[in-house]
Design goal:
Elements lengths: L4 H13 L12 H10 L4 E7 L3 E8 L5 E3 L5 H4 L6 E3 L12 H4 L6 E8 L5 E9 L7 H22 L13 H13 L6 E7 L3 H11 L1 H18 L7 E4 L2 E7 L3 H15 L3 E3 L2 E3 L4 E6 L7 H18 L3 E3 L2 H23 L2 E10 L5 E12 L3 E3 L1 H9 L3 H22 L6 E4 L2 H4 L4 H11 L7 E5 L10 H12 L2 E7 L7 H5 L4 E4 L1 H4 L6 H16 L3 E4 L5 H10 L3 E2 L10 H7 L14
Parallel strand pairs: 12-13, 15-17, 17-18, 18-19, 19-20, 20-21, 21-22
Antiparallel strand pairs: 1-2, 1-6, 2-3, 4-5, 5-6, 7-9, 7-12, 8-9, 10-11, 14-15, 14-22, 15-16
Length: 596
């Protein structure tokens, strides 16, 4: 049975408006479908949508196929009927006795279908129940089926409302993903469900595109990427738009190898250039994959785990990354450290230790670097290598830097009161020095304690934050002019810009431990140290070797003429009282003397 052209056009328009055209299935309807089967004790129940040539079953139980030809559709009669279409025995009805579902397996005999009528009065399909035996279906049954059909159409319309369909891509949104996931997983066999999240344009790059081209081309780029992804997964999985540039889907596949093959195929298709404002843009592709247990369908936690794995792909610069429990636990621990740090500062869980620095010739102590230490009340001692990167990613870094400044300057003042003069090096974060009032605060702290500016050395690391004209450059210049020494820390640890050595008002270059490790055994490492040292000397700077741990390294550095050294071979970080002994001063009475 084929409807008139006008009806087909009306139905097509409604399906398009409701984003149902081409949709193969809708797991969010599975509960209503199951309820219909349970209510009427029917082995077969389904939601059908009528297209021009196919009838698609968006949700079904007891029915083996996902679609049929429109000419074999019983529902095509239901949508034109006045109310519920009831056929007590399909075999006895000349319209349906030759229907494949009746004449062949599963040999259905009974049909009842309530039209799915949209708000504008256009019927787009039907909610149907069927049985393998002839049955009656009284007025009460028909009212209940009509009520269930109204719930189905309400779900379909709700899905098309804001929040259920993403306004940019037109794809089902994150909210719809949460609604659909239980139904999707219910259709998967145990051990065959895999969730995937894909980022097609990382956020920093998306911001750049938006600033250059505006939001409309950026949205067009995202929309076209969504269309491409949906086309690539047609018949495989429904695609959801779960973030600005992120999409997610769940596939039913027998093993992980097939999932990886699918991801790599997607990557090939997605990386083809896309047009935005007449400019060909190259999308990016990073995917996170997570096996899903159908019995633990927490959609919010699943998306969280997909983010963990996706960022693993970012960090590893790989096309995809599987979810790792170990990485997840590491991130949870980092979050805990970030949340506990402020309380720890107030509770006294942090303290400073000091590692002395010596002249290479003569071994005379000349200064000490203040190093922060954290003893967590339940986790125990936390390495700075673990908690400092956590702080640097949050607003905590400025607060911690301020605490270190206060504690270290208080200690310098206390040493001076005891007749001990020990210059101290302090590491300042880029975020702290980039603040508008950094120099004003540091100067105020020094003046408040009546400390000479020459007692302090500020250690900074290289980076884009030291661009010409930045507040940090102004602060560093002001400090240097006031008598504070400025050191470039970790020089040579990565990409080292030698222009820093001539453009910044620095006093000291600290050679990173990665260079010093091979200085005694590796000719290339030795050549690098020699080149940096001689250039620094030509510019009038002091050179300091960090991380010296072997006598052979000390000998090699002496041959090269490096000025000062710091490392475990000479002294480990220690408490303030023991540092006084290193500088030839007696410990104050009652102070601890053990090194940490």
């Amino acid at each position: 049975m084929s409807p008139p052209t006008s009806q087909r056009d009306e139905r097509s328009a409604v399906l398009s408006a409701m984003q149902l055209d081409g949709l193969a299935s809708l797991p969010a309807l599975d509960r209503l479908t199951a309820l219909a089967g349970y209510t009427f004790d029917a082995p077969v129940a389904f939601v059908s949508i009528l297209g021009d040539v196919q009838q698609r079953f968006l949700s079904r139980i007891g029915l083996p196929m996902a679609q049929t030809d429109i000419r074999a559709s019983i529902c095509a009669h239901a949508v034109t009927s006045d109310g519920v279409l009831v056929v007590p025995d399909l075999r006895q009805d000349p319209r349906f006795r030759d229907n494949p579902l009746v004449a062949h397996s599963p040999h259905l005999r009974f049909y009842a279908g309530a039209p799915l009528v949209a708000r504008n009065g256009v019927a787009i399909g039907a909610l149907c129940v069927m049985d393998t035996r002839p049955r009656t279906f009284d007025a009460g049954d028909q009212d209940q089926l009509t009520t269930l059909a109204e719930l189905v159409i309400a779900q379909l319309e709700l899905r098309a409302m804001s929040g259920r369909l993403d306004p940019v891509s037109g794809l089902p949104s994150r909210h719809q993903f949460h609604a659909d996931l239980p139904g999707i997983l219910a259709r998967c066999a145990e051990g065959t469900a895999y969730a995937v999240a894909v980022d097609i344009l990382d956020i920093p790059r998306a911001n750049q595109v938006g600033q250059v081209l505006g939001l409309r081309p950026l949205e067009a780029l995202i929309r076209r990427a969504g269309v491409r992804l949906r086309a690539a997964l047609d018949g495989v999985a429904a695609v959801y738009h779960v973030g600005v540039t992120r999409f997610a889907f769940v596939v039913d596949m027998p093993d992980a190898a097939q999932v990886e093959a699918l991801i790599l195929e997607l990557r090939t298709r997605m990386l083809r250039p896309l047009m935005a404002a007449a400019v060909p843009m190259s999308p990016r592709f990073h995917a996170g994959i997570c096996a899903v247990d159908p019995g633990q369908a927490d959609s919010h936690d699943l998306l969280r785990r997909l983010l963990v794995s996706m960022h693993g792909a970012f960090d590893a610069r790989q096309p995809f990354c599987w979810y790792s429990q170990q990485r997840d636990e590491k991130m949870h621990r980092a979050y805990r450290l970030a949340s506990d740090a402020e309380r720890g500062l107030q509770a006294g869980d942090f303290h400073l230790e000091y590692q002395p620095r010596f002249t290479l010739h003569g071994g005379r102590p000349v200064s000490a670097e203040a190093l922060i230490r954290w003893t967590h009340p339940t986790l125990g001692a936390i390495s700075p290598g673990e908690f400092i990167p956590v702080f640097q990613r949050t607003a905590l870094m400025d607060e911690v830097t301020d605490w270190v400044l206060d504690k270290a300057l208080d200690q310098v003042r206390d040493w001076r009161a005891l007749g001990c003069t020990i210059p101290v090096s302090l590491n300042l974060s880029s975020s702290y020095l980039s603040g508008a009032t950094a120099w004003e605060q540091i100067r105020g702290k020094l003046e408040h304690r009546s400390l000479p500016f020459s007692m302090i050395e500020i250690e900074i690391t290289e980076g884009e934050w030291l661009r010409p004209g930045s507040p940090a450059i102004a602060h560093i210049t002001a400090m240097s002019q006031a008598g504070i020494k400025v050191a470039i820390d970790d020089f040579g640890s990565g990409y080292s810009n030698f222009s820093y050595l001539s453009d910044l008002p620095i006093h000291t270059v600290k050679l990173d431990k990665s260079l010093i490790d091979g200085v005694a055994t590796n000719a290339r490492a030795r050549a690098k140290v020699s080149a940096i040292h001689h250039l620094a000397h030509e510019l009038g700077y002091l050179t300091v070797a960090e991380g010296v741990e072997q006598p052979e390294q000390l000998d090699a550095l002496a041959d090269l003429g490096v000025d000062e050294v710091q490392g475990y071979l000479l002294a480990r970080p220690m408490l303030p009282a023991l540092l006084m002994r290193v500088f030839g001063q007696p410990e104050p009475h009652g102070q601890p003397s053990a090194a940490a």
